[in-house]
User: Fold this.
Amino acid sequence: MIRRACFARRMDIEALKLALAASPENIPLLLLVARAHEDRFELADARACFDRVVDLDPRHADALLGIARLMDLAGETSEAIVRLEALCAIHPQHAAAWLLRARLALDENEARAAREYYDRAVAIDRSVADDELLAGILKAGGGNPRAAMTPQGPVEIGDDDEDDESPFCGLDAVTARDLDLEFRVRADIAFNDVGGMDQVKEDIRMKIIHPLKNPELFAAYGRKPGGGVLLYGPPGCGKTLLARATAGEINATFFSVGLHHVLNMFIGESEQKLHKIFELARKAAPSVLFFDEIDALAADRRDMRQSAGRGLINQFLDELDGSRTSNDGVLILGATNAPWHLDGAFLRPGRFDRLVFVPPPDTSARAEIARIHARNKPLVDFDPATLAAKSDGFSGADLKAVFDLATESALTEAMRRGTVVPVSGKMLLGACKEVKPSTRKWFESAKNHALYANQSGFYDDVLHYLGLKK
Assistant:
């Protein structure tokens, strides 16, 4: 949002309005116009743009935050606080919303609440840390039992009163109380919403979906629903999207867990948080528990010098085994770009015993991805098939970069002319030449592992994809 705001200030607002007239339902463009009006303190015009975004997407976090911010600027602070409470309930991982709540709470002389919101914001995104705001909160009496988070990391600041019984006394208490809000994501997409990758989808259906949809049939063969599946492949190829779509296919609760949800600077607390996450998923079964960039949590213990990391890995293995509580009905998905960095114990039967290779999109999938990125953009002479043919080896993220680069070219020309310049097929093909496939570097590394460290056959799919094995 900061980068967009700076970009909007440099742009001619009239050119932005002309572009918006050509694409009136373009949400990113609406947000740019709204921030441009806000920078000029044209609050009514900014509010109209934010309201339009909310009409198109009632849950849009940045638009809801923008409305709350405008209300505060207009002196309607109480209403702004109410709206921020609702926003944080809908989007508990929106760091900017928690930070604004902290500012407003401090303005209302609620230092303890301000500190709670500030810690929550920085735990989600350390880059939002604000030394000046933190100093104001501490000066007003918003202490913390253990440490404060600054842009440079945690800083010890002393203890609060021992009789403080607030349920928000620290970040861990908030996480324990609001665990379902921290991690729960609506499984609102299915395989039909994911372009291409038919073979990968079929693998997931057989290994994941059918056992959960037909537990009695699989029980007759001694198979229980649930278990662990590892999705691996180049970055930007849709592993996270596939995980959400898998949950949508079986109408299961989807829990997305990132590294910041688990790690804690205090010894033993990361293990406790990981256990709470698994317990929540067990209570919500059937559920999908998805760990993104799992190699950061399941790294090879031989590469670790500190025992703290080993303890977390041992806890993770214990939760996967379900030795204390059954994992029946809990599908555990992991995604990684580097499966060879995982501790070998995670890949034994009963844990992540099924590996699914997610390759770059093929030609038809790239054409479908291009159509998706083309929505709500002023385009001329656009042929998805031509773009797909010229983007061999591109990931979905690479294709998005192509559209972003072409759109920037069109906007630059629009600002120079003072009128709308549509994104043309020629601009897209030009951008396609500038963007380099990010998957090539991954395959260079994966090829070596698949050829020389593949005694178990885990990476045969990579060799098949590269045409090195039949």
Q: What stands out?
A: Confidence is low (pLDDT under 50) at residues 1-11, 144-182. The two ends are 48 Å apart (CA to CA). The chain has three domains: 2-150+165-171, 183-357, 363-436. The beta strands are 147-150, 153-156, 184-185, 227-232, 253-257, 287-291, 330-336, 354-357, 379-380, 423-424.
